[in-house]
Amino acid sequence: MKYTVLALLSFLLLSACMQEEIVEEIYEGPETEKAVVVIHPTEGNEASGVVTFTQQDDGVRVQAEISGLGSETLHGFHVHEYGDCRDSAAMSAGGHYNPTDMPHAGPTDEQRHMGDLGNLPANEDGVATLDYVDTHLKLNGKYSIVGYAVIVHEQRDDLQSQPVGDAGGRIGCGIIGVANPDY
Ligand SMILES: [Cu+2]
Predict the structure, then answer these.
(1) How far is the centre of ligand 1, averaged over its atoms, from the C-alpha of 114 (Å)?
(2) Of 58, 61, 75, 78, which is the active-site residue?
(3) 157 catalytic, yes or no?
(4) Residue 75 near residue 126, CB atoms below 8 Å
(5) Per-residue model confidence (pLDDT) at position 174
(6) 113 catalytic, yes or no?
(7) What are the average pLDDT values for consecutive 10-residue runs of the chain, which has 183 residues?
(8) DSSP string, the chain
(9) pLDDT of residue 19
(10) Catalytic: 170?
(11) What is residue 29's predicted lDDT score, i.e. its pLDDT?
C-alpha cells in the first residue's frame, strides 16, 4: 500500500513537470540559435549576399558577406523596423529597429538603436565582410530581431546624425529568418 501511494505520488509529480514543459513549449516556442538574411538588391542596385546572426554566450555573432557595393567605401548597415522589402527602394522596411527608444549611434555605443550595426567596409572589388559579436542584439524574447529586415545603404553611416546616420538610399534589403542548422 505504502509503495502504491509513493508510486502514485511520483507519477503525479512527474506528469506535473512534463505538463509544465509542454505548456512552456506551446507558449514560448523553440529558442532561436541562429538567424539568416539573404540580401537582395533594390531596383537599379547590385548589393547582394548573406548575413547570419548566431547566439553565443558573449552576445550575437554577426557575420556578413555582401558584394555589389562601392569600391573602398563604407555602407550603412542596420536592422529596420519592418520585415518588409516589397518596395522597389525598400522604403517599406521603415526606419531603424529601435524598440527601446534610443538615439542613433554606432554598434559599440551603450545607447543606440537595437538595429544600429554600423557600416559594411567594402574592399576595392566592392565586397564587404564583417564578423563581430554584438552585445545588444537578441534572437529571442520581446526584442528579438527575427522577422525584421536588414538594410544595406548607399552611403556611410556617420554613427551620429539623427535619426539614421545620413546613410542615404537603400541598395539592399533582406528579411531576418530562422536559419536551417544544416547550412
Ligand atoms: Cu538603415
Answers:
(1) 12
(2) 78
(3) no
(4) no
(5) 98
(6) yes
(7) 65 66 70 96 98 97 98 97 98 97 96 97 98 97 96 96 94 98 90
(8) -HHHHHHHHHHHHHHHHHHHHHHHHHHH-PPP-EEEEEEEEPTT---EEEEEEEEETTEEEEEEEEES--TT-EEEEEEESS----STTSGGG-SB--TT------TT-SS--TTEEEEEEB-TTS-EEEEEEESS--SSSTT--TTSEEEEESS---S-STTTTT--SEEEEEE-EEPPTT-
(9) 72
(10) yes
(11) 78
| Beta pairing partners, 119 | 76
State the cell numbers at 102: 534610443
Over residues 55-80, the pLDDT tens digits come to 999 999 999 999 999 999 999 999 99
Q: What is the pLDDT of residue 2?
A: 63
Contacting residues for 168 by C-beta, under 8 A, at least 6 apart: 76, 153, 154, 155
CA separation for the pair 128, 173 (Å, rounded)? 15
Angle at 79 (CA atoms; ends 129, 183), nearest 5 degrees: 55
Active site residue 104: yes
Output the CA 42–ligand 1 centroid distance in Å.
Answer: 13
